[in-house]
Design brief:
The structure is a single chain. With about 525 residues, this protein is α/β, with parallel strands linked by helices. It is about 35% helix and about 15% strand. The longest helix is centred in the last third of the chain and has 20 residues. It is globular, with a radius of gyration of 28 Å. The chain starts with 13 loop residues before the first strand and ends with a helix.
Length: about 525
């Protein structure tokens, strides 16, 4: 993809150039004679490069993804091509998260170099003991490096930013002792790097393990019938360390005795299993519907949502599993019970921070197309259920249906949630305006949280004040944001980083309840 259109594409976790042969000098080729002369003369030391450590060259999209990335490479050397700074300059005036990140990178670099011109190119120490520098590559140096001469014959003029960054990486590889790796989240950039023999990899710091991002059934633990009966009566049971291995506080399990007898449980703070204490038979939403969990996953999710000791709930679930509906229902139920002052519901606008100015109307009207699924859930939950029996059944003929009121007439029924929105009890929040807010005593539901970057997820979490509860729901397999993937998005990152905290719980929903068609579509298509 042209860098004028996007600065990042999803990329595999790790790629290697070792199998691509000696094209353009590759990793398989020996250093050039010029590089050997430089090394023998010790000139590479004058440039400030260390021996025995790795050198990482950062692409622009890595810094836009995580402005603090320069501090995440421990004792190794971090190099930023000067062309990356030029690319960051293009985004610094944007009133988006990308623009904010570009400005943050500039501030971080200025603080690191402390306005010392010499340290910019000769290097300054990072927090992990490594070295940070800006690298200025002169294309005239290509005549000294065979791999660069070949590269510039294929890409004459170096007219694209990608090609200049690749050329800079090739030049560094010739000058530095030890491996040189290009770090980029751009898939096309990685393919080009492989083609010219450059080692490259994705930015791995905020990637979670595949098992942490997978949507799996609640684990089963086999116990004896006597143990299950004792758990049913006391509400608590301590199991062996072998059975509790890999489980952390607030993980949900299914205690089973054979195929028929089972009970759901949650891992307690003492490492034992406790009964789901916060699970009612059903939830009544004001004058609206009464809902109850349809399966084990929904029961566990409802328990976490209703527990006042849990302030962060993450939930994975494919389309139709009821994750958003259950979250909104639990929030409304607790608002009507005066546990919270109100409920705030939001979704990312594909990439959080995109401007809403191109849509007409007020903020709420601008958000309406993006939040229509939330309005659908509110309408379903809060619309009064008509009385099923209105008197004796007519045996002869049928009463004519009432005429539908015209749109905009006085007879047009208002949405059941309109009054609560006007009172501020139900709030529809644009996520791009959440920076700087402090949100106390509210039940906050963030739908489609898999579209967030880890930094955006951190921004949302740090807005929660005392008395608030944050619920992040989404499907890691459905990613529309080009800057994240199933293992580096804000939802899975928040779950992985908060796992094991007494205030956090996670539930995976695997059974669709919307309809057999919806479940089959989510599973098979």
């Amino acid at each position: 993809m042209d860098r004028d259109d996007s600065t990042a594409q999803l990329a595999p976790t790790l790629v290697s150039a070792q199998d691509f042969g000696p094209l353009f000098g590759g990793r398989a080729s020996a250093p050039s004679k010029n590089a050997n002369r430089l090394n023998k003369a010790g000139k590479w030391r004058k440039m400030g490069f260390k021996a025995g450590v790795k050198t990482f060259v950062l692409d622009t999209n890595v810094l836009l993804h995580d402005p603090a990335a320069i501090q995440k490479f421990a004792e190794h050397q971090v190099c930023i091509p000067v062309d990356v700074l030029s690319e960051l300059d293009r985004f610094k005036n944007e009133m988006t998260d990308r623009g904010a990140n570009a400005r943050e990178v500039h501030r971080t670099l200025m603080a690191a170099f402390a306005a010392d011109g010499a340290s910019v190119t000769h290097g300054t120490q990072t927090d992990g003991g490594g070295t940070l520098r800006v690298v200025v590559y002169d294309p005239a140096l290509a005549s000294r490096v065979p791999s660069l001469m070949e590269f510039q014959r294929v890409f004459p003029g170096l007219d694209k930013m990608d090609h200049r960054i690749l050329a800079c990486t090739l030049w560094l590889r010739d000058q530095v002792r030890g491996p040189v790796t290009l770090v980029t989240k751009d898939l096309n950039m990685q393919i080009k790097a492989l083609a010219v023999g450059i080692e490259c990899e994705d930015y791995l710091h905020d990637k979670v393990e595949a098992r942490e991002a997978s949507n799996v059934d609640i684990p089963r633990i086999e116990i004896s019938g006597h143990e299950l009966q004792r758990f049913a009566s006391s509400g608590r049971i301590t199991l062996s360390a072998a059975k509790m291995r890999a489980l952390t506080v607030n993980d949900y399990v299914l205690l089973c005795s054979g195929e028929k007898a089972s009970m759901p449980a949650r891992v307690g703070s003492q490492g034992d299993c406790v009964r789901l204490h916060h699970l009612p038979e059903s939830l009544r939403i004001g004058a609206g519907r009464t809902i109850k969990p349809m399966n084990l996953g929904q029961a566990c999710l409802m328990d976490a949502l209703l527990d006042p000791q849990i302030s962060l709930v993450t939930c994975y679930g494919q389309a139709g599993t009821g994750k958003t509906l259950v979250a909104v229902a639990a929030g409304l139920s607790q608002v009507f019970a005066h546990t919270y002052q109100g409920i705030t519901i939001s979704r990312p606008i594909v990439a959080m921070g995109e401007t809403l100015g191109f849509l007409p109307g007020s903020l709420q009207e601008k958000m309406r197309p993006w939040l229509q699924p939330v309005y659908d859930a509110l309408d379903l939950l809060m619309r009064p259920v008509p009385n099923q029996q209105h008197g004796p059944t007519r045996k002869k003929g049928r009463a004519a249906p009432p005429a539908a009121p015209s749109v905009g007439s006085a007879l047009t029924p208002a949405a059941p949630y309109d009054g609560l929105i006007q009172q501020g009890i139900i709030e529809v929040e644009a996520l791009c305006y959440i920076r700087g807010r402090s949100i106390p005593d509210r039940f906050f539901v963030l739908d489609e949280a898999q579209q967030l970057t880890p930094l955006e997820a951190k921004t949302v979490i740090t807005r929660m004040s005392r008395g608030s509860k944050l619920v992040l729901v989404g499907d890691p397999a459905q990613i529309d944001n080009p800057y994240v993937d199933s293992r580096s998005n804000g939802l899975v990152y928040a779950r992985q980083r908060m796992r094991g905290q007494a205030f956090a719980a996670h539930v995976s929903l695997t059974k669709g309840e919307r309809s057999p068609l919806a479940e089959a579509g989510a599973r098979l298509m």
